[in-house]
Design goal:
By secondary structure, the chain is of the alpha/beta class. The protein has helices spanning about 10-15, 35-40, 70-75, 95-105, 120, 150-155, 170-175, 205-215, 235-245, 255-260; strands at about 5, 20-25, 30, 35, 50, 85-90, 110-115, 150, 165, 190, 225-230, 250-255. Helix 4 packs across helix 9.
């Protein structure tokens, strides 16, 4: 049976004590930062906490991708082996845990999944004591740079390649900008807020529903697409949703809006891709 890219809380409850499973609590919010306090207040039994800063490197934007050695060290501290099945969760619909799912794939790990519905959907027991995770033997492979793009690549994209903005609509339209220098969006980008990948219970839509969603946004398998958000975190939610839909030729703009808005680059505001 293929593992991931999602697992249900029911599956996790049945496999929680499997020797080859590692559960990672990756809670974090833009407003509140690290979820370490929430982890300490209660987490899924056996889960270890990994902080966003542990897997954030140096480069463009607010949350650049980590280097190979940095990521390898973080996963070893979390007790991850090369053969480990990794389940990652947050408490906001997978919009943060999808980032760690992406990073594991980026560095060549074979089996990783996001907990569908996250901590909010968990109905099992919780614990407050942090487990003593043994050192893992995880080996990060050379990163797959074919799945990321930088500012210059986005600027030169042909018109036929759709660019999706995964942020909430008010940030896309430029009505609100809590952290970055300029409000608005990349000219030509299509608004694709990540929460619309979820149903009313905070779980991912079916693959067919997701295919339909991205088709309406102009994304087709084999055409290529680029996704961005504020700093390259929530955009991975759209990448996960497209993976579920069978669309795999999509790239992440690493620096995202936090990179674009700091440059001398055009900005559009309003509900339309080209502004207005």
């Amino acid at each position: 049976m293929t593992f991931g890219p999602l697992v249900t809380t029911e599956w996790l409850g049945e496999h929680l004590h499997d020797a080859d499973l590692r559960v990672i609590d990756f809670r974090w919010t833009l407003a509140g930062g690290s979820g370490a306090d929430k982890y300490a207040a209660g987490h899924i039994p056996g889960a270890v906490f990994v902080a966003m800063e542990d897997v954030t490197g140096e480069g463009p934007g607010r949350h650049p991708l980590p280097g190979r050695e940095q990521f390898e060290a973080a996963m070893r501290r979390a007790g991850v082996d090369d053969a480990t099945k990794v389940v990652v969760y947050d408490e906001i619909g997978g919009s943060v845990s999808s980032r760690l799912w992406f990073l594991l794939r980026f560095f060549g790990h074979q089996e990783q999944a996001v907990l569908d519905g996250g901590f909010m959907a968990w109905r099992g027991t919780v614990e407050t004591e942090a487990p003593q995770a043994r050192e893992g033997d995880f080996h990060a492979k050379e990163p797959d740079r074919s799945v990321i793009v930088d500012f210059e690549a986005v600027r030169k994209l042909p018109k036929r390649v759709p660019v999706l903005d995964a942020r909430l609509g008010e940030r896309y339209r430029g009505e609100s900008e809590p952290v970055d220098p300029k409000p608005g969006h990349i000219p030509g980008a299509i608004s694709a807020p990540y929460p619309e990948n979820l149903d009313s219970n905070g779980r991912f839509l079916t693959p067919d529903q997701l295919r339909d969603r991205f088709k309406k946004l102009g994304v087709k398998k084999g055409q290529g697409a680029v996704v961005y958000c504020g700093s390259g975190v929530n955009a991975t939610h759209d990448l996960l949703a497209m993976a579920l839909a069978g669309i795999d030729d999509v790239r992440l703009y690493e620096g995202s809006w936090s990179d674009w808005s700091r440059r001398d680059a055009p900005v559009a505001t309003g509900p339309n891709p080209d502004g207005g």
